[in-house]
Design goal:
The structure is a single chain. By secondary structure, the chain is α+β, with helices and mostly antiparallel strands. The protein is about 25% helix and about 40% strand. Strands 1-7-6-5-4-3-2 form a 7-stranded antiparallel β-sheet. Helix 1 (about 30-40) packs across helix 4. It comes from Formicincola oecophyllae. This is SRPBCC domain-containing protein. InterPro entries: START-like_dom_sf (IPR023393).
Length: about 180
């Protein structure tokens, strides 16, 4: 498994909440799947818990390192606006299909040093596997009072949401690439 780069304070087991989800698709490549992850404006089309995607400045529509954007996420019937900054963006490399594609962003809401502050580090890895398969892994750590509350929900709301996101994205990719 490729190494995941966790910023200080966001290492799983030390952060307040952690979610890890993976899906393996057959007859799929990272090249085919990457645009469905790297184009946030597509996300609400297959994952309705995310909405109101808006890029800062003249960023977008594709995610690249340093890009900032906002979205609103619904969790447990409540809507939460989030600010996001891309920290790592390594698209698939057709000349090296063994190199994993990587995407990571930092999300936040609320003022710093307040009880309302909620921060997230969200990573995605896409890795071509032998036999024409593709692994899509997403992991997220969270810090803040809201993260503690989410960690205490059973089943874990973030694990459930990320699995729904992965499955819906996989279904959208399969439908678009069916031929």
């Amino acid at each position: 498994m490729p190494r995941i780069y966790w910023p200080a304070g966001f290492v799983p087991g030390f952060a307040d909440n952690f979610a890890s989800n993976e899906i393996v698709m057959k007859t799929m490549t990272a090249d085919q799947a990457w645009p469905w992850l790297a184009t946030p404006e597509r996300w609400p089309g297959y994952f309705p818990s995310l909405s109101a995607i808006a890029f800062w400045r003249n960023d977008g529509p594709l995610l690249t390192e340093g890009v900032c954007f906002d979205f609103t996420v619904k969790v447990g019937g409540k809507a939460y606006p989030m600010h996001n900054r891309i920290l790592e963006c390594v698209p698939p490399l057709p000349s090296d299909p063994t190199r994993p594609a990587r995407l990571a962003w930092h999300s936040w809401r609320g003022e710093e040093n307040t009880p309302e502050r909620f921060e997230v580090h969200h990573i995605w890895l896409m890795q071509n596997l032998e036999g024409g398969r593709l692994s899509i892994l997403t992991q997220e750590t969270q810090i803040g009072r809201a993260a503690v509350e989410l960690a205490n929900t059973h089943p874990n709301a973030m694990v459930m949401m990320h699995q729904a996101w992965l499955e819906a994205m996989a279904a959208a990719i399969r439908q678009a690439t069916a031929g």
